[in-house]
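Teaching note: in complex prediction, the entire set of molecules is handled at once rather than each chain in isolation. The prompt given to students was simply: 'Predict the structure of this complex.' The entities are:
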Amino acid sequence: MTSTVSSAPAVRRGTAARHPYLAALTTTRARIGLVLVGAVVLAGLLAPLLSSHAPTAQSGRALVPPGTGGHLLGTDDLGRDLLSRLLYGIRTDLEVIALAVPIGALLGCAFALLAAVHPVLDTVVQRAFDLVLAFPGLILALAVTAILGPGRLPVIVVITLAEIPVFGRQLRAGILVQRERDYAVAARVGGTRRARLLIRHILPNCADPLVVQLAVSLTVAVFLEGAMSFLGVGVRPPEPTLGNSLSQALPYLSQAPYFAAGPLLIVTLLVLGLSLLSEALNRETRR
Amino acid sequence: MTATTPASLEPALLEVRGLGVDFTAPDGSPVHGVRGVDLTLRRGETVAVVGESGSGKSTTALALMRMLPGNGRIVSGSVRLDRTDLTTLGEDELRTVRGARIGMIFQDPMTSLNPVLTIGRQLDEVLRAHAREHDAGHRDRRARRRRAQELLELVGIPDPARRLDDHPHQFSGGQRQRILIAMALANEPDVLIADEPTTALDATVQEQILQLLAELNEKTGTALLLITHNLGVVARSCDRVLVMYGGTVVEDGATADVLGSPRHPYSAGLLAAVPRLSSPSGTRLYGIPGSPPDLSLPVVGCAFAARCPSADAECGTVPPPLVADGGAADVRRVACHHPGGSGVTEVPRRVPSEVPVGAARTDTVDGGAPLLEATGLRKEFGRRARGGRRDPLVAVDGVDLRLDAGETLGIVGESGSGKSTLARILVHAHPADAGVLKLRGSDVTRPSRAALRALRQEVQMVFQDPYASLNPRMTAGRIIAEPLLARGGFEDRAARRRRVGELLTQVGLDPSAADRRPRAFSGGQRQRIGIARALAPEPSVLVCDEPVAALDVSVQAQIINLLTDLQRELGLALVFIAHDLAVVRQVSHRIAVMRHGRFVETGRADDLCDSPREPYTRALLAAAPEPVRVPAAA
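The expected output is the structure of the full assembly:
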């Protein structure tokens, strides 16, 4: 027998031992992203502490400029405190997004795994994805709302529906590539069963683009919720969201520009932060 | 640029002094790719740079043209081309050198040509880029086309006038490499750098390209710097050779001297590790123990010290300078404290294996059923030609084979001969389209679920690429445990761990390796993990698909020896697939030569190599380059 080649195989030092996601999160890009997203999320979570007024309470003084009468950001056309509406709006948004995107991602992945089992299932699932993708996001939103009526639920359903094919396609592409790789063939030759091969061997190797996609999808979801609320088919007033605050501010844009500034700024920060995060993850996992 | 120099001796055309290149690792730490490389190239000379992966040979070539990737930079030394120091030139000045005075050929002819442009366009592009520097001017389009046609003629493309308008996909791999050579030669450079020009090509084509390079060197007087890992290629085509190891030049001298009587222990070891076609079946290969150095660590002393048989305390601390070794300087230089030292002389001698493997089972139990038997195996891949016509690719076309217990069947063929597909059919990774496959006499062509499970235990596979065949997300231990889990009987974690430890020891790794992921291992170590995985279900047949093609020569020998040792110990039957006839001859009892999905010739290993019957076998034999004409007999 050959002698033991080396007691300690050459272990590469440094980042090799660290998980690439962790490495990605320590880059400057990701740190800025984390701070931005973290600040917005924190503002939403701490809404009851940070605001002195109830989001729906009317003070009787409409459209006061920022800083007057205890209203830090002023009031809206119905005399409601803009800061409270903004903070609670973030809350609503985050609740919807944090629920809808992961559900969409999980369902999408589940369908992709299903599609990987048999070519016939693959065709069925693919055509179903095509069907969903054939509708532009907003048409889908209007259609769903027409059935379910306005509210939180249709927003969640629409975002979920929109995300399923996105994740499904992404994972399916990954599986098709990984399935032909030598290690997958080796596992098959080693006797590993199909389900185990798919979930324990192939799925972890497809995870990178999915994680990046998750960050991208959160960004898209912020827009989608905003657009639905803006069109009035989303969360019902008087409950505040970023989107309906914006639509409410639109008629007063020349008169009271500060009205629209808050929601616009928050959406910008959130999207910017998530984009930076997804970009950082993408760069690190592509290495 | 200075043109005339006093004709004292012969002036160096390209002179590299103390070249050092650092790379920045992703974590910011420096990796010393090349350290203190000296190289001199004279007009019309052919010099080879030989080394294994990571030795810095390609980095040196790229650094010469200042074409290092973004994370690499030249940290020391100079590169003088006719007295102009290339390391200090600006981008614009460099452009007048690249492609005009120094031409370059890359390894992979398949990806180095733009697929959407015709060959003529691409040659035209090169000519036009440097039109300004030529007096006669390739400014006129027709003149350029004439020149392009000349170039194709020069590199031996038949009917060049017509073929100028063809696209890259209409040429074969060898022809594409010829076209790349034509592009490199288009502006009549003084120096042609060829970075592994034949590695991606089949043996018979490799031979043609080497001949072409030698001819062109004679005809045009272009100096050739050939970067390669293949000592056979060096022996065939170069006057002088530089041997590199761990980023440094360890030996430099005339090819015949260096290959004939290497003075550096690494050169000697490398030479000894190359399988020779002339060695009979069963010859044990010599492998250099250990693995190549980690370049991210600061190297004190000699880079080779850790693997050197004659290393002492001095080698571990003082880096040996590259000094003249007997005779005039510039003739033969070695970087070693003990050149030609004690350990070296014994190294190159080949140890004939204690038990002559071939003898043990020349006539194996002929009466009993063979372990594995295939008749008329066939495999097609659906493919469509233009217009949707069905045009299936027949990868395996009626193969009959028989494998007895404890025997090694070598299968040799060039790329596209269907040998990998055959391997995958044998292990049931793909089903066969036609034919019968029998294991111990029972038909397993289309096995039931239960039969397949049994079969997975009996027949296992070792893959070509040790990087792709191990799941990067799993630890070595889990990778090896996978077949144990699939087979059952190892539900207990501790028992499984124990078995994994045993398997790792069996393939020459430390049991502690189980907790590390594949990327922590070198190529050779990964291949050992792959072998351990294949051994896990205690198979009786091991199908090895090019198990050493992706490994360096010194490591290749370790893996082949491991496989033959395991075979003897465990009584395995091996199907050993490779493109290198020399390797196959040494490990195999019988050899089958495969071409276009068929076996063209089968026979006892030595018989087939010594007296081939088929012309194709003879061509393969003739094309296999030998590092030394007459092998140094012990």
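Point out the following to students. Chain A touches chain B at residues 1-16, 181-183, 185-193, 196, 201, 204-205, 287 (CB under 8 Å). Chain A has one domain: 37-60+69-286.
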